[in-house]
Write a structure and sequence with these properties.
The protein has a three-stranded antiparallel sheet, with no helix packed on it. Strands 1-2 form a two-stranded antiparallel sheet. The chain is mainly alpha-helical.
Amino acid sequence: MDATVTALRAIVEHRDDLVKTRTQTVNRLHVVLIHLIPAGAPRSLSADRAAEMLRRVRPREVVGKTLRGPAVDLVAELRQLDRRIAKADSDIKAAVVDSGSSLTELCGIATLTAGKIIARVGSIHRFRSAAAFASYTGTAPIEASSGDVVRHRLSRAGDLQLNCCLRTMAITQISRDTPGRAYCQRKRAAGKSHKEALRCLKRRLSDVVYRQLLHDSGAEPCGGPGRTLGGDSHVLRGRLTPRTGASDKSRRHSAGRNPGSCTVTPGQVPARCRPSHSSRPTWHRRFRSPSQSVQRCLPQLTDNRHDVIAEL
């Protein structure tokens, strides 16, 4: 793995740990403020808002004076965590700029999201296609068809962090006038629910991110100018051409052979068409039916019976 990607992953994971610690600190501060302030405290607390609320509290009881001390300490810890998170944000932004990635040009991807995608994906060349990348991000649905009913279910596999990044990208595009919003509206008009349309949009955005990462690495999508679409066709230099299968190739090669090489006299079988014993499967020679085993053992049992009678 590249040293830049390794360093970026370390910074992103460190920032995630700081955000988790800040959330825990805010929850503890909220519990303390509930006991100090009769009206309670809001859920979304910041260091400045909590400090302003503590200035209005002048408890006279022993319990209130005791709780005010830990509340002040939690506010100071919260401010320190905010400074560390801001420093981690600036480090991630500098690392993304140094990597030369153009993910921030896509709608819905900011610096932090781009840094997380680069850190979690690593080398884009380890994915053989856009479908493999979608399976890794957890946006590729799993087919669960039965008979004539064709349906797909949600995939629980994949990298949840990348799935969260694509979800953020999808929600941002839906809230703005973007092609993603028009695509989601077409899916809703086709009868899909909001969640189903969002999953379809995430699958398309996964392909967009994959192509952008390939473009940043200087490689062509799907390993060359030909891009597989599935079915019996593929795109080659902008033209839709039918795909040639193995059966067509063998038929083409057989048609190009010399007809005189296969001519035989009447009643004669060509050598390459004769059945060969070596072509029979090994299991046929190794395993025999019970009747064959009994027939092989009957002569031996008969000889032993005559020997016993002669001895008597």
